Predict the structure of DUF3137 domain-containing protein.
Amino acid sequence: MEDYESFYEASIAPEIRQLEIERRRTVKRVFALGAVILVAILVFVFHTQISAAVGVGDGFVRIAALLAGFGAVASIFHLQSKMRRKLKTALVEPTCRFLGLDYSLDAGRFPLPRFVDVKILPVHDHVHLQDHISGAHAGVDFELCEAALTKRVERSDGKGGTKTENQSVFQGLLLIYRFPKPFTARTLVLPDRSWLGNRIAGFRHGERVRLEDPRFERIYEVFSDDQVEARYLLTPGFMECLTDLADHLGASGALSFAFEAQNLLIAFHSKQKHFEGGSLFTPLETPERAKALLQELKLIYELIERLKLTDRSHL
């Protein structure tokens, strides 16, 4: 931490201070746009009286209010997105560089098809990836990104018709670690939704593998196209690592694993955004921002250590 604090003061703090000036201006603009939205709502609600008072068409008043309101909302989202990108460039990228990690805001090169192919992600129609991080720790290569997946669903509009909505089906981290034990088959370790539940969810690869650890069986279900190799991979020690990890993260039901092409793929459904650097509405210079980011990045190394991916003795 002492090394990082020195690096922060020399390489990050000057740009953060400049960015803080822009953040304050942005917050003022957001509040002004918020006032526009409030006025637009009031105009839309009282459009009849306003139309009569100013002598313009009722439809014109309503359309003007809608355009002003939606325009202000779009502008707020744009301002927030712009500041978020600048903060990532100023804080997240150099912090990753300090830790010896490669960082890119754009995650277009992340091998998402691997996760889709092994079917440890829910069925989806649209994907948004960002924060591509890669590197190595204790000889274990890894890469990850943040993913948001949505699916188009049709719902009743209450009037006998239907409307299409985009529903979030996954928000979290996708991680790939080089696994230290050789294998040729494909094995999935999924949250226990019951055999039927996982089949309905689309996890149809391989046969169900029954294991003798009752604690592990309460949390996970295993499917593989090679029963012998699945047991070779999921030793008692490694199953204990997986159950301890779920307990540690408080994420029972949120972790899915796949052994594929000498890699361990992990889908961590965390329901929150990562590597954001904090809120737009708090000062950028507070040390809590950097500490929270380091805590998030610590998870990358913690998974290697908790799963003992550098230790072959338990495998």
Observations:
- The CA atoms of residues 189 and 263 lie 13 Å apart.
- The longest helix spans residues 2-45.
- The chain has a mean pLDDT of 86.
